[in-house]
Amino acid sequence: LTSYRAGVGKHFDSSRKDFQGFQKLFHRFLQVKGPSVEWSKINRPPEQSVQPYEKIKAKGLPADISTCLSKLAVVKLNGGLGTSMGCKGPKSLISVRNENTFLDLTVQQIEHLNKTFNTDVPLVLMNSFNTDDDTKKILQKYKHHRVNIHTFNQSRYPRINKESLLPIAKNMAVNGENAEAWYPPGHGDIYSSFSNSGLLDKLITEGKEYIFVSNIDNLGATVDLFILHHLMSQPADKRCEFIMEVTDKTRADVKGGTLIQYDDHLRLLEIAQVPKAHVDEFKSVTKFKIFNTNNLWISLPAIRRLQDKNALDMEIIVNPKTLKGGLNVIQLETAVGAAIKSFSNAMGVNVPRSRFLPVKTSSDLLLVMSNLYSLDAGSLTMSKRREFPTTPHVKLGSSFTKVQEFLSRFDNIPDMLELDHLTVSGDVTFGKNVSLKGTVIIIANHGDRIDIPAGAMLENKIVSGNLRILDH
């Protein structure tokens, strides 16, 4: 322990807490054998436990909604890097619309809320050791915005060798040969790291009662006043401590976690927990009709109570990884929504799809940059000029994976108001003011290139082979 203390220096206290947290998680991992659910005990949630959003909205809003807002804090999960989209640094710093990053849009949303209702909803960012430094540098630019921003760091746990089950780290450093030895253990870590940071108690002291938690890359996750009012209007003895926003599953969402009834509790079932024989059943749109958006409303006093009693029970997700040198490791994670079963009077709210607008890929990025959405005070809303409520299905090939390359392939973003489906594969570029309608499939074969000319209008078209427009 002495050398451990010396190696860590000023970070000793937080590292000690990380170490204790990992020890607990690892101990549980060694004890648990077999799947964490018995398939035969799974039931659909009772009707009253998942309320339609329309029913909650029908209650209207009180005259003093700002009183409700004074008891709220917004927490954004900001631990992820932009590597899957070919970017260095925190994902929240990728520009998604009119030069605005995810973080810019979040700050604009909350500032607008605070100005409109003359309130003081703080923004809390849960960073990881991967994103903390870069995020803190950028926060300087929001000093004169009407939003108080707090940050705390989630834990840093060691990856373990799949064969030996020993940590692969040589020392406590996070760089050099140790760069791949550590990981942030999933967003289920929010409860302990929020508590350890002192921020949980600070917010409770300031009179905050609920947090609204969501992924920072979900551009649909804005503060919903109707859900907030519903929480605040419950009688004190029946106070709902946890709301999970769910939405109807489509073919694109078959891997999303779902709400089930299990041992008389609502419970989140993730695909990682499903026995192999039942994966197809889990993915079916008929049996499990809803999935978790990861927009969650959670009681702060309840988190404090459950933390004090060590009563938060979240299933362990074993995430296998292969490192650059070919070494197989596992990282143990938990999901924030998995704690639903520990809270009193927990419920789901089936919200419109518009509250789930994640940007995970360049295909998602194309949608949010296009004229399908209009931007107002940091919030994206579907254009009134689109005749269908659903978004087009967009699949861009590997030439579009990295954001920089993606941007270089569009002179500007095409008109997509009447688009149903777009597939693009291979070396394809788009000129200015292209319009896409119906189903459009563009496939450039290996070695070929397709340049869609400026002003082109493609409606229900398949373009393949080689289409190259050269300057004369």
UniProtKB/TrEMBL annotation:
Binding site for UTP: K91, Q154, G186, D217, K360
Pathway: Glycan biosynthesis; glycogen biosynthesis
Top-level taxon of the source organism: Eukaryota
GO MF, one annotated term: UTP:glucose-1-phosphate uridylyltransferase activity
Tagged with keyword Repeat: no
GO biological process terms, semicolon-separated: glycogen biosynthetic process; UDP-alpha-D-glucose metabolic process
Enzyme Commission identifier(s): 2.7.7.9
Keywords assigned: Nucleotidyltransferase, Transferase
Quaternary structure annotation from Swiss-Prot or TrEMBL: Homooctamer.
Family in the record: Belongs to the UDPGP type 1 family.
General function of this protein: UTP--glucose-1-phosphate uridylyltransferase catalyzing the conversion of glucose-1-phosphate into UDP-glucose, a crucial precursor for the production of glycogen.
Protein name as it appears in the record: UTP--glucose-1-phosphate uridylyltransferase
Annotated source species: Takifugu rubripes
Gene: ugp2a
